[in-house]
Amino acid sequence: MKKIKKLSALIIAGILVFASSLGIAFADTKKGQLNGHDVIGHSSVTQTSGIAYTDMLWSGSVSVNATYAYVNINTLETATQTKSAGGQSNCSVSFSAPSSCRSVYISASHWASLSGQTWSASTYDAY
To answer: Of 19, 21, 100, 120, whose CB count within 10 A is highest?
Structure first.
Protein backbone atom coordinates (compact mmCIF):
# COMPACT_ATOMS: atom_id res chain seq x y z
CA MET A 1 0.00 0.00 0.00
CA LYS A 2 2.86 2.40 0.81
CA LYS A 3 4.42 1.73 -2.59
CA ILE A 4 1.15 2.63 -4.33
CA LYS A 5 0.89 5.91 -2.40
CA LYS A 6 4.51 6.79 -3.20
CA LEU A 7 4.01 5.92 -6.85
CA SER A 8 0.82 8.02 -6.99
CA ALA A 9 2.60 10.98 -5.41
CA LEU A 10 5.47 10.68 -7.88
CA ILE A 11 3.08 10.54 -10.83
CA ILE A 12 1.17 13.63 -9.65
CA ALA A 13 4.41 15.53 -9.03
CA GLY A 14 5.65 14.53 -12.49
CA ILE A 15 2.46 15.77 -14.13
CA LEU A 16 2.72 19.13 -12.36
CA VAL A 17 6.37 19.57 -13.32
CA PHE A 18 5.61 18.58 -16.92
CA ALA A 19 2.67 21.01 -17.13
CA SER A 20 4.74 23.89 -15.78
CA SER A 21 7.60 23.13 -18.16
CA LEU A 22 5.18 23.40 -21.08
CA GLY A 23 3.97 26.78 -19.85
CA ILE A 24 0.45 25.61 -19.11
CA ALA A 25 -1.37 28.30 -17.17
CA PHE A 26 -4.43 27.75 -15.05
CA ALA A 27 -6.88 30.57 -15.77
CA ASP A 28 -9.41 32.09 -13.38
CA THR A 29 -13.03 32.49 -14.43
CA LYS A 30 -15.97 33.86 -12.43
CA LYS A 31 -19.56 33.49 -13.57
CA GLY A 32 -22.78 35.22 -12.57
CA GLN A 33 -26.19 36.28 -13.84
CA LEU A 34 -28.04 39.54 -14.39
CA ASN A 35 -31.76 39.27 -15.03
CA GLY A 36 -31.22 35.64 -16.03
CA HIS A 37 -28.41 36.42 -18.48
CA ASP A 38 -24.95 34.92 -18.00
CA VAL A 39 -21.96 37.12 -17.20
CA ILE A 40 -18.35 35.91 -17.29
CA GLY A 41 -15.17 37.48 -15.95
CA HIS A 42 -11.93 35.80 -17.01
CA SER A 43 -8.19 36.31 -16.71
CA SER A 44 -5.23 34.17 -17.76
CA VAL A 45 -1.50 34.42 -18.35
CA THR A 46 0.97 32.53 -20.48
CA GLN A 47 4.75 32.73 -20.32
CA THR A 48 4.85 36.10 -22.10
CA SER A 49 1.28 37.44 -22.28
CA GLY A 50 -1.92 38.03 -20.38
CA ILE A 51 -5.58 38.66 -21.16
CA ALA A 52 -8.64 39.65 -19.17
CA TYR A 53 -12.20 40.06 -20.35
CA THR A 54 -15.77 40.56 -19.23
CA ASP A 55 -18.50 39.02 -21.37
CA MET A 56 -22.27 39.26 -21.03
CA LEU A 57 -24.38 37.01 -23.20
CA TRP A 58 -26.83 39.89 -23.67
CA SER A 59 -26.62 43.59 -24.43
CA GLY A 60 -25.53 45.31 -21.22
CA SER A 61 -22.73 47.54 -19.99
CA VAL A 62 -19.47 45.81 -19.05
CA SER A 63 -15.97 46.81 -18.00
CA VAL A 64 -12.65 45.27 -17.04
CA ASN A 65 -9.68 46.79 -15.23
CA ALA A 66 -6.53 44.64 -15.15
CA THR A 67 -2.98 44.79 -13.85
CA TYR A 68 -0.31 42.61 -15.43
CA ALA A 69 3.07 42.01 -13.82
CA TYR A 70 6.21 40.69 -15.44
CA VAL A 71 9.84 40.10 -14.46
CA ASN A 72 13.03 40.69 -16.42
CA ILE A 73 14.84 37.34 -16.43
CA ASN A 74 18.26 39.02 -16.61
CA THR A 75 17.92 41.66 -13.88
CA LEU A 76 15.02 40.14 -11.88
CA GLU A 77 13.34 43.57 -11.82
CA THR A 78 9.55 43.48 -11.86
CA ALA A 79 7.15 45.94 -13.44
CA THR A 80 3.40 46.27 -13.94
CA GLN A 81 1.06 47.56 -16.62
CA THR A 82 -2.58 48.52 -16.04
CA LYS A 83 -5.28 48.71 -18.69
CA SER A 84 -9.04 49.28 -18.67
CA ALA A 85 -11.78 48.73 -21.21
CA GLY A 86 -15.54 48.99 -21.36
CA GLY A 87 -18.35 48.46 -23.78
CA GLN A 88 -21.64 46.81 -24.58
CA SER A 89 -21.80 43.03 -24.09
CA ASN A 90 -18.03 42.41 -24.00
CA CYS A 91 -14.66 44.03 -23.52
CA SER A 92 -11.09 42.83 -23.12
CA VAL A 93 -7.54 43.94 -22.45
CA SER A 94 -4.36 42.13 -23.43
CA PHE A 95 -0.73 42.43 -22.43
CA SER A 96 2.63 41.30 -23.79
CA ALA A 97 5.82 41.06 -21.79
CA PRO A 98 8.77 43.01 -23.21
CA SER A 99 11.81 41.22 -24.58
CA SER A 100 13.74 39.21 -21.96
CA CYS A 101 10.71 39.28 -19.63
CA ARG A 102 8.29 36.65 -18.37
CA SER A 103 4.80 36.91 -16.92
CA VAL A 104 4.28 36.89 -13.16
CA TYR A 105 0.53 37.46 -12.72
CA ILE A 106 -2.61 39.17 -13.95
CA SER A 107 -5.26 40.56 -11.61
CA ALA A 108 -8.56 41.87 -12.94
CA SER A 109 -11.75 43.53 -11.70
CA HIS A 110 -14.88 42.85 -13.73
CA TRP A 111 -18.15 44.77 -13.71
CA ALA A 112 -21.45 44.44 -15.58
CA SER A 113 -24.81 46.19 -15.45
CA LEU A 114 -28.18 45.35 -16.97
CA SER A 115 -31.60 46.86 -16.24
CA GLY A 116 -30.51 48.40 -12.95
CA GLN A 117 -28.76 45.28 -11.65
CA THR A 118 -24.99 45.12 -11.27
CA TRP A 119 -22.48 42.29 -11.00
CA SER A 120 -18.81 42.44 -10.07
CA ALA A 121 -16.02 39.95 -9.54
CA SER A 122 -12.25 39.71 -9.28
CA THR A 123 -10.00 37.21 -11.04
CA TYR A 124 -6.32 36.38 -10.66
CA ASP A 125 -3.92 34.11 -12.49
CA ALA A 126 -0.20 33.58 -11.94
CA TYR A 127 2.41 31.98 -14.10
So the answer is: 120
